[in-house]
Design a protein that fits this description.
about 300 residues, Porin, 8-stranded antiparallel barrel, elongated, OMP/PagP_B-barrel, DUF6089, Outer membrane beta-barrel protein
């Protein structure tokens, strides 16, 4: 599935590039233009701490805000390139994701994991309009559906909430999980990176408000190449002594009511904590307003 998805996206991007080269030859520079935009979005995630092990499964109540800024250059009747910078948050909580009708509810409640993760993303995508515009920006269509795909890099830092039974001086605080090696990574030296990359793809529609402004609605999926944006992937440690010194401070007692359920009598030592065969995803859905930077027209020289 992963190889098929990657191959499909690569093929789509190749076709878009070939199409753009042919179209650009018939699209003069005087018709090309730039735009800047701001977007207010909703952010969700799919991973080990969602209600069901399905890419369509996410908890609406876990939706968090995301804000983005973009710069777009249109250089062909259907083709644009967009650079973006965005910041947002994703969350997950076993106590809220599981319910009594879920066959994995007991497993999830015993794991008792929660996290939040602030993500800063920089992206570069190609945008393919399903309705072309061979005229200048003033005569662009009123309503344009489009698809997009590209590449993005992001920084993330999953954190867990210290519960009421945690150390008194940090109860209610969010603690960075990656340095703790919650699955014994400090012993193996196999800690996951906080800088990652993803493949953003999706679609949307643009509506022409007036000669200078467009209103957009878009949904985009981010296929990441890490299973740790929620800090959950493989197995529990064999015993609490296998955790790092920092983790022992939070996990060395009744940690089912502490930071998360990394190890307890309810969880068999070395047993499954997450599903490492699927990488995590996040989803960005929202509205954007784009302002078109009218191209400057050079006056002809008189002789």
């Amino acid at each position: 599935m992963k190889k098929f998805l990657t191959l499909t996206l690569s093929l789509v991007l190749a076709l878009v590039l070939v199409s753009s080269q042919a179209s650009a030859q018939q699209f003069s520079k005087r018709k090309q233009y730039n735009s800047v935009g701001v977007s207010l979005n909703a952010m969700n995630y799919f991973g080990d701490i969602t209600p069901k092990p399905s890419i369509a499964s996410f908890r609406f109540a876990a939706t968090r805000p995301n804000i983005g800024f973009s710069f777009t250059h249109r250089f062909a009747p259907r083709i644009s390139v967009r650079a973006g910078l965005a910041y947002g948050r994703i969350t997950g909580d076993d106590a809220k994701a599981a319910d009594d009708t879920d066959p994995d509810a007991k497993y999830r409640f015993n794991r008792n994991m929660n996290f939040r993760n602030d993500i800063v993303e920089g992206s570069l995508v190609g945008v393919f309009d399903l309705i072309e515009n061979r005229n200048n920006y003033l005569k662009r269509p009123d309503f344009v559906p489009y698809i997009f795909a590209g590449i993005a890099g992001f920084h993330h830092n999953p954190k867990g909430l210290v519960g009421n039974d945690g150390p008194t001086d940090i109860q209610g605080d969010y603690i960075a999980l990656q340095p703790l090696g919650t699955e014994g990574q400090r012993l193996t030296g196999d800690q996951y990176g906080l800088w990652q990359f993803s493949i953003p793809f999706g679609g949307g529609v643009r509506y022409k408000l007036n000669k200078s402004f467009d209103l957009g609605l878009e949904i985009g999926w981010r296929k990441t190449f890490t299973d740790y944006i929620d800090d959950v992937s493989t197995n529990y440690v064999n015993n609490p002594a296998d955790l790092s010194a920092g983790a022992a401070r939070y996990f060395g007692y009744d940690i089912t009511k502490g930071l998360d359920g990394t190890y307890s009598e309810a969880n068999q030592a070395g047993g499954q904590r997450g599903k490492s065969n699927e990488d995590d995803w996040y989803i960005v859905t929202g509205l954007s307003v784009n302002y078109i930077l009218a191209p400057r027209v050079k006056s002809p020289k008189f002789r």
